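Fold these two proteins, one after the other.
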Amino acid sequence: MNIIEITFSILVFPGLLFLISLAFFTQYIVRKLSARYQKRMGPSYVGPYGILQPFFDFVKLLRIKEIVGTKYSMIRVAEFSLILGIAFIVSSTLLLPLSPYNLVSEFDILIFFYMTSIMPLFMLVLAALSMPNPYTNIGVSRLLSIVTIAEPAYFASLIVPVYLATRGKIPFMSISKAYAYVPSLWLQVATLVIMLLSLIAYIISIQVKAMFPPFNIPEAEQEIIAGFETEFSGPILALARLLHDLDLTIALLAGVYILLGGPAPYRHFSIEGVVVLVVKYFALLFIVVAVKNVMGRYRIEQALTQIFKYSLIPAIISSILALMI
């Protein structure tokens, strides 16, 4: 029975099939809302209201477009790296309470962060460096520069609520244990400020992880062609974009559970619980898209300063306050 549950959880729900479908739908919402901000139509032709356009774009790159490489390109290394990055994100869903086969242990938030932030980023960098190009190297260096500040802020914004919610409980620092107690943190005066600071740090760091304006410096097309994606084409570009969309999707799911309490106070898979999950997910997504479309692009030194001021510093303050109360 466990084998069936594990297989279903990894391949169907909330694993590969569900997560990719949600990632495509998330991309559709991002493109559609961004188009409305910019007085454009956005995806409109493939599927009802253009909803299948992200899937069609993926299939077109994967099956129709060819890979263009140079003498020094390591195409198989790039493909394997991106697939491995996707596999880490998909496997991390077993640590979310959403999974029918939910893995629970002390400090599983650290494993979740490793699988959703460290390894996908490492695999993306490895894929980019496998297709060498001067523009690619610049894009990778810019990417590493900003995530050096953004990832610690993202990590702190998630670990602080989990620490507060599981303090004195077993299993300690577990996502599945924490999410049910998160709503109470928003209702207590002592922890309200900490949660607000964590939410601010999370929103800013998400913009960096998704490489949305004003922090899309690593792929600034007007300056460095397409950054770390310069040499990506065909199936490699399809996998890179899928990895990007999955990275945003799993980060939003993490925010929904760790910062907003998931379906709490309702049960999972109840009608009310599903509605609450959907509302919280798209509330976070709308905030991210709004920031994306009202901001211009920073220069690299400006971006590093703003990430430090508005993401890392709030995350540090919230961490200190959490340890003091």
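Now the second one:
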Amino acid sequence: MSPHFRPTYDYDDPDLTPPSPGADLIMQVGLVESLPGIGPATGGRYIGIPRAIGPLHTRLWRPHDQVEMTLPNTDVQLWNTPFITAGHRHGEFKLSERPGWHWLRWTIADHVAHDLQRQAAAADLGITPVYPEEQGDPLVIVPCGATKAAFPRPAGEMYTGSYHRLTRRAADALTSSDNIRIVSALHGLLPLDQIIAPYDLRFGRPGSITAEQLEEQADQQGLLGHPNVVILASRDYTRLAQQVWPHARTPLAATRSIGEQQHRLARIAAGEPPEQVAG
């Protein structure tokens, strides 16, 4: 570990009360490490500060050499030293066997799966999860469109197709223009005022935006950890955006046709909450 960086997270509950596992705990602790055997050829493990936790991969920054890397969630675990050390201080040398502490053996993939199961259980009970950080307008993600203006102009004016215009009307009903982003197959995450030229590239074709690039753009725009995200897009764009914001609300999910998506978008544009429309 670099002499210029020391982990600052501390745990010292005399009752050894286990915190809830999941991505929130990982970001709170602020340090992850690769599993034994997953590391540089010279030996040891990768260790770093988590920048983003997606459904399949974790992006981390290594303070000792200033390198950012992405690893599969199955190859990374939470830095558990603060909890193990606290257990030792209180005479508990097998903390992972104590009730509520089984997650000390988990990989990041297990933490992500735990979060998804908890969200699914809440949905089954008709409960809308509430995030303490969720304040103000949501970040709303809409797709680009094949029909475009003929000359360069702001991204918010470039796409002229009826589906895109309907997603924009729904987005405008949910949030301010500063909190709307268009996902472009070529450019990635576009603010509405960014000037772009017409182009011809469909999502999924060679040269189109990837999840890794979208994640990097979200980080650069300060949107990566946004707690309140709504994705108003068809299946492929939704899957792409969910790799960056796995907790996002997706009111168009499980629709069977474009017509049904348009109906839901029209209801949102008319003022209905996304959760009610999706139900």
